[in-house]
């Protein structure tokens, strides 16, 4: 029996275009991410007014963007899949919804907290490396950065709805170096965290 071909990074957006609605319905809404979201909010700057949050690869907005809005944040969601960002706009109409690719994203404002939860790891390794300059450009002074990766370098296949989907990760040491080079200090690293369904989580702050 022939093995299926490994998934390619260019298949990620078409996969979410096709499977996004089903994925959003089945998305776990227990908010196991909450302790890490709360940590990130706690270290993010406290400007006058509401904290500005940029959610990269925001998906359908529930539960993460919904929770951040309920905490009084101003949320801007970005997703490269049009069906996903259209769902986001319906689910969390209080947020700003942008149909765009996170890679090389340029916006006219900076943010107090940047999230790339269960999205950053869909980028191929070289695109991940380049993203750290984008993170830095979008981060205001002292901004928090919260993202998930794999626990070690390599490529893998995940699942979205009824389809396989591409995943990749760099080595943790390389992530640390890239964060430092981009002007971020690592505040926390939780590899394969049992309390968060095995997610590997990074929290950093812009110097």
Automatic annotation (TrEMBL):
Signal peptide: none annotated. Keywords: Methyltransferase, Transferase. The keyword Iron-sulfur does not apply. Residues 1-25 are annotated as: Disordered. One of its GO terms (molecular function) is methyltransferase activity. Residues 53-142 form the Methyltransferase domain. InterPro entries: Methyltransf_25 (IPR041698), SAM-dependent_MTases_sf (IPR029063). CDD domains: AdoMet_MTases. One of its GO terms (biological process) is methylation. It holds the Pfam family Methyltransf_25. This is Putative methyltransferase. It comes from Rubellimicrobium mesophilum DSM 19309.
């Amino acid at each position: 029996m022939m093995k299926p071909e490994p998934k390619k990074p260019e298949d990620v957006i078409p996969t979410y275009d096709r499977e996004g609605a089903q994925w959003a319905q089945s998305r776990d809404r227990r908010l196991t991410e909450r302790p890490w979201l709360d940590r990130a909010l706690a270290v993010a700057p406290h400007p006058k007014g509401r904290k500005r949050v940029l959610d990269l690869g925001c998906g359908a907005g529930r539960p993460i963007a919904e929770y951040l809005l309920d905490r009084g944040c101003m949320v801007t969601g970005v997703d490269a899949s049009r069906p996903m960002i259209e769902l986001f706009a319906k689910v969390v109409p209080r947020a700003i919804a942008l149909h765009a690719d996170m890679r090389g994203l340029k916006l006219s404002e900076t943010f107090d907290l940047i999230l790339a939860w269960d999205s950053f790891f869909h980028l191929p390794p070289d695109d991940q490396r380049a993203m750290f300059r984008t993170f830095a450009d979008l981060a205001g002074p002292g901004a928090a950065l919260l993202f998930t990766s794999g626990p070690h370098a390599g490529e893998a296949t995940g699942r979205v709805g009824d389809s396989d989907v591409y995943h990749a990760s760099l080595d943790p040491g390389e992530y640390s170096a890239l964060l430092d080079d981009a002007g971020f200090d690592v505040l926390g690293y939780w590899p394969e965290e049992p309390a968060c369904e095995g997610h590997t989580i990074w929290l950093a702050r812009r110097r």
